[in-house]
Amino acid sequence: MGKKINIQQIDAFSDRPFRGNSAGVTFGDGLSDEEMQLIAREMNLAETAFLCKSSIADYNLRWFTPSTEVDLCGHATIASLHFLNSNEFLKNKSEINFDTRSGILKCKIKDERYFMQIPIFKTEIFNGKKNEFLEALGLSGNDIEKSFPFIILENGYLYIYVKNLSAIKNLKPNYKELLRLQKFYNAGGTIVFTRETFDKENFAHLRFFGSFYGIDEDPVTGSANGPLLLVLNKLGIIKIGNEEINLSFEQGDIIGRRGRIGVHFSPKDNELFISGQAITVLKGEMIF
């Protein structure tokens, strides 16, 4: 007899369906690594999350794209919190820990908003050939602020500041060339961002290109929005002092998947969190 799992598709970073970023979520105990990868490929979403038993946290949480397992995924974690909450495994105003490939991540729920801890990565100035990335993205030298260097995180995410939304909207990525560059520089994600936004209450707008992970463009990327706060500090656009910082970022509007992400940094605790809402759009069984 084959296996049967209950699986849900959840839109994260949105309170309305068909927006934000979709993730599959299911329980993973009894599944092999190969089966998890095949399920993620079958779901064909940016990521599918698997919640498993853990001896050191509430759950072990793993994330798979259709082609590979990844170290960190924001939207699939927010979706997992919503999955646990909507299925009554997690109550409002409660905290939970996930054991992940990025370490133990603290998460919580408060009034239908989900919070996820993001690791604090070191930020460095990118010393590679910037023009190669500009050409691969379809950007010109006039689109960028020459006084702002490209910033790369220790996890390989590369951040490029551009002047306005027009430059963001008019990107024409050459995904094959981006993949070559991401492999050459071990820069798994390329983020283009600007201070100009669709909604005045938001601080920045960004797009994320992750051909390295088998995702040409991710609609709303928690693992990129959280560290953006650190990048803004590195560039001198904001200053991290002794007070807590709360910002709101936006992503996905240009490709029809509008998403909003809260980013919260506590200097006292040296902790970085992202937050957002989520909604279930599909429930089903998978038999294999």
List keywords for this structure.
18-stranded mixed sheet; 288 residues; alpha+beta; 6 helices; 2 domains; Diaminopimelate Epimerase, Chain A, domain 1
In a nutshell, what does this entry contain?
The chain has helices at 33-43, 74-86, 130-137, 165-169, 175-185, 222-235, and strands at residues 4-12, 21-27, 47-52, 59-64, 69-70, 94-100, 103-110, 113-118, 123-125, 151-153, 157-161, 189-194, 204-210, 215-218, 245-251, 259-266, 271-276, 278-287. The chain has 288 residues and is α+β, with helices and mostly antiparallel strands.
Question: How would you describe what is shown here?
Answer:
The chain has 288 residues and is an alpha+beta fold. The protein has 2 domains: 4-119 and 276-287, Diaminopimelate Epimerase, Chain A, domain 1 (Roll); 123-269, Diaminopimelate Epimerase, Chain A, domain 1 (Roll), CATH 3.10.310.10. 22% of the residues lie in helices and 38% in strands. It contains 6 helices and 18 strands. The chain has helices spanning 33-43, 74-86, 130-137, 165-169, 175-185, 222-235; strands spanning 4-12, 21-27, 47-52, 59-64, 69-70, 94-100, 103-110, 113-118, 123-125, 151-153, 157-161, 189-194, 204-210, 215-218, 245-251, 259-266, 271-276, 278-287. The protein has an 18-stranded mixed β-sheet that branches. Helix 3 runs antiparallel to helix 5 (175-185). The longest helix has 14 residues, at 222-235. It is globular, with a radius of gyration of 18 Å. The mean pLDDT is 97.
